[in-house]
Each structure stands twice: as structure tokens, then as C-alpha cells.
Design brief:
This protein is an all-alpha fold. It has helices spanning about 1-30, 40-45, 50-55, 60-70, 85-100, 105-110, 125-140, 150-175, 180-195, 210-220, 240-245. The longest helix has about 30 residues, at about 1-30.
Length: about 260
């Protein structure tokens, strides 16, 4: 039975290595800025090797930044609700909870405001505005919005208000421990302005709303070592291959790109 579990453990170790690099990069980008962090800094702080780093991120630091943007700004934890405006509140509260605890998400927000973000590692704001527009469109179909609401303009404002509250909270408080309370008040004020009055008592703006939803998601996402009735042959082996590569001696790092040093910024 122990041999049957080995492929999953190897796969998980490879996933853990990649995540450790991303978490480390997030912390360094927040503390020292993207420009002030080199690939050597990332490798040392993440306790990995040069070869392992480039196997996960062949494009170097730029690819790490792109991965932070793609991996961290997700809809994880969001659940379908009877009231669509509740879903709009929920995703903002989930992200507020996460950004107060996750350095990678803090780094993603910081990177997203760089002037060259759209052309380099990407920015989430256009996608979030589109997503907000879809939510508000459905809210209107369900009769949740006041007649005057301009869907696209309101979608833009939701994203802008959220980002502004987080940035100002971090700047004035010098930390993000108050951000969930501030974002909660922001949504209460915003939804009060656009929702039909009878709906307001049914919407949950509680400060712990995001924490509770995200915690439930994490607890439900835990996977066993093997799926029910599964066998080792059914498990994907890409992670096992990566992990075996990472277990090679240090001289195997010569397989890393010859131009690797040129990626240090």
C-alpha cells in the first residue's frame, strides 16, 4: 500500500515546491518590491535549487509574477446564492479576507497597479469588471437593482472601490488587519445605494463573511491520498516526474537555461 501512495506524495511535493516559490516571491515582492527582488533571492528564500526553480518557472521572475496573478486572484470560496448581489459582496469579502493573510495576494494587488502590468505579467482588473458586469446583469434580471443603475459603470466602481479601500487601509493603518471591516462597510454603502430597499435586510455584510466562506472551501477541498476505489495507475504522473528531477544531484542544474543569469532583474 505504501508503494501505491508514493506517486501522489511525489506529485504533492512538486506542487508544494511550486507553491513555496510563489509564497516566497509574494513576501519578497511586498517587502522589497518586484524590481528589488532577484531570482537568486527567490531561490535562497524558498530553499530550493536553481534547477528546480527553472523547471517550475522557465521564464524566471517574470513567469513567477504572472503565476502569482493567475493563481491567487481566483473565485475560490464563492458559492451560488439566491440573491445575486450577495455573491457580488461575497467575492469581495473573500478576497479581503485572503489579502489580509496571503502575501502572494498582496503582491498580486501591488503588481496589478504597475503601469506596464497589462503588457508584462497581466492585470486582473478587466476580468473582474467583466465578472461584476455579469453579476449585476443577473441581479437586474432578478429584480434586485434600482432602475437607474448603469451596469458597466457600476461594475467598474465596484472594482475601483474595493481596490481603493484596500490600498488606503494598508497605507494609513500600515497593515491589513482592518481591511475586512472596511471592505464590509464599503459594500454595505454601495449595495444600499443600488439595491431595491426590500432586499437589504436579506444580504449578509458581516465582517467574517469572507473568512467563513473561504474556510469552508479549504476544508471541502482537502483530497485523500487516493480517490475512492482509485489505484496508483489512475493518478497523474507529471508531478512525480518533476519531483524525481528535483531529487537529482546539484550538478543536474546545468540543465537549466544557459541564459538564466540574464533573467536576474
Amino acid at each position: 500500500m505504501s508503494n501505491l501512495r508514493r506517486p501522489r506524495r511525489r506529485q504533492q511535493r512538486a506542487i508544494d515546491t511550486r507553491q513555496r516559490i510563489l509564497d516566497t516571491a509574494g513576501a519578497l515582492f511586498v517587502a522589497d518590491s518586484y524590481e528589488g527582488t532577484s531570482v537568486s533571492d527567490l531561490i535562497t528564500a524558498a530553499r530550493t535549487s536553481k534547477g528546480a526553480f527553472y523547471r517550475h518557472f522557465p521564464g524566471g521572475k517574470l513567469e513567477v509574477a504572472s503565476a502569482i496573478m493567475e493563481d491567487t486572484l481566483s473565485m475560490d470560496g464563492l458559492q451560488k446564492q439566491r440573491i445575486m448581489l450577495q455573491e457580488m459582496v461575497d467575492i469581495g469579502m473573500i478576497l479581503a479576507h485572503r489579502i489580509s493573510n496571503e502575501s502572494a495576494l498582496q503582491a498580486a494587488l501591488m503588481l496589478s497597479f504597475q503601469g506596464n502590468a497589462p503588457e508584462t505579467y497581466g492585470t486582473p482588473w478587466p476580468d473582474w469588471i467583466v465578472y461584476n458586469t455579469e453579476q449585476l446583469t443577473e441581479a437586474r434580471r432578478r429584480g434586485e437593482l434600482k432602475p437607474f443603475v448603469d451596469l458597466e459603470e457600476q461594475a467598474y466602481q465596484v472594482a475601483g472601490d474595493w481596490a481603493g479601500v484596500v490600498l488606503i487601509s494598508n497605507t494609513l493603518d500600515r497593515h491589513l488587519r482592518n481591511v475586512e471591516a472596511r471592505v464590509s462597510r464599503m459594500y454595505r454603502n454601495l449595495v444600499t445605494a443600488i439595491a431595491v430597499p426590500d432586499l437589504l435586510p436579506e444580504i449578509d455584510f458581516s465582517v467574517d463573511r469572507g473568512k467563513n466562506l473561504y474556510t469552508a472551501f479549504l476544508e471541502g477541498a482537502a483530497d485523500p491520498d487516493l480517490p475512492p476505489g482509485g489505484t496508483a495507475e489512475e493518478l497523474p504522473d507529471q508531478g512525480a516526474v518533476l519531483e524525481r528531477l528535483e531529487e537529482l544531484p546539484e550538478h543536474a542544474e546545468k540543465a537549466a537555461p544557459e541564459h538564466a543569469d540574464g533573467l536576474l532583474l
